[in-house]
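pls design
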């Protein structure tokens, strides 16, 4: 078994107390990585291999994912497009380590998530992945600044680091004047900007944004997408975003079309426009 690269996972001794708490005091075992000869290309930050997820409702199987293969390059901005119920959120849960596939493998930075124990998975989720949800999911009793610094507390940052970075992130999303406001005192768009800042708190390799504009009006939604794109360009963070609104696709490097639990097409916006042009021309 190859050793995980330094950027992938820390040595057990480097894990912070906060993570120990997050993992319920579980003991870390040796870090597992994908075989180096097979997955040595660090160009890819996510690799999904034949990922399946079967749910059960009333004893009946629901095939939410039917074997997804997806390679996502570091720094890429990729949109997962598909109708409601096609499996986008399920795929996000797999990539984000929030749920386990029924079959298949997800590698994040060459690390096979299935090989991680609770302790290591908690570390990965805290440090490598930022999550953005349709419903913002901010903590109502905390201010904007406190919401943003919370993941830093779990990562073991000092109070000074939290304040400095928290304010920097608030500036980045143009909300420094709202730092002491609670979520209920902010508009939907402002709440989502706080959630974006929170997602970036621990400099993740990946940001997963599941329908980030779903609860916003079109103009606000567009500004959120533009912000995500700017952060992607400026910081190089990989952004994976789910949407069923095709007006949100132009900023993507690639678009993956999910239908009934499978990726049907992978294309660039230019390829999509070209196809649409052809189709339109026929009418
Ligand atoms: P999307 O995000 O594209 O709307 P989802 O990934 O949420 O799709 O759902 C894919 C399919 O899996 C749907 O048929 C949905 O009803 C089903 N599903 C999702 N989550 C669960 C669950 N926890 N239990 C049972 N079925 C689920
Ligand atoms: Mg969904």
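designed seq:
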């Amino acid at each position: 078994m190859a050793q995980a690269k330094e950027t992938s996972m820390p040595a057990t001794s480097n894990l912070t107390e906060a993570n120990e708490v997050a993992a319920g005091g579980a003991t870390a075992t040796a870090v597992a990585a994908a075989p180096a000869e097979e997955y040595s290309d660090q160009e890819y930050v996510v690799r999904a291999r034949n990922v399946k997820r079967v749910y059960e409702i009333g004893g009946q199987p629901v095939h939410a994912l039917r074997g997804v293969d997806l390679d996502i390059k570091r720094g890429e901005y990729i949109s997962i497009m598909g109708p409601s119920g096609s499996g986008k959120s399920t795929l996000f849960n797999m990539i984000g380590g929030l749920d386990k596939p029924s079959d298949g493998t997800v590698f994040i930075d060459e690390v096979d998530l299935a090989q991680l124990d609770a302790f290591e998975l908690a570390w990965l989720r805290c440090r490598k992945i930022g999550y953005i949800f349709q419903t913002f999911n901010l903590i109502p009793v905390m201010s904007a600044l406190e919401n943003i610094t919370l993941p830093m507390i779990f990562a073991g940052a000092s109070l000074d680091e939290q304040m400095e970075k928290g304010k920097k992130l608030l500036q980045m999303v143009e909300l420094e004047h709202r730092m002491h406001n609670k979520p209920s005192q902010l508009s939907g768009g402002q709440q989502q900007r706080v959630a974006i800042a929170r997602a970036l708190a621990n400099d993740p390799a990946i940001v997963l944004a599941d329908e980030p504009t779903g609860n916003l009006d079109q103009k606000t939604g567009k500004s959120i997408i533009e912000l995500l794109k700017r952060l992607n360009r400026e910081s190089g963070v990989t952004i994976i975003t789910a949407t069923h609104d095709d007006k949100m696709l132009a900023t993507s490097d690639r678009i993956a079309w999910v239908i009934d639990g499978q990726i049907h097409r992978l294309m660039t916006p230019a390829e999509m426009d070209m196809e649409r042009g052809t189709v339109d021309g026929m009418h």
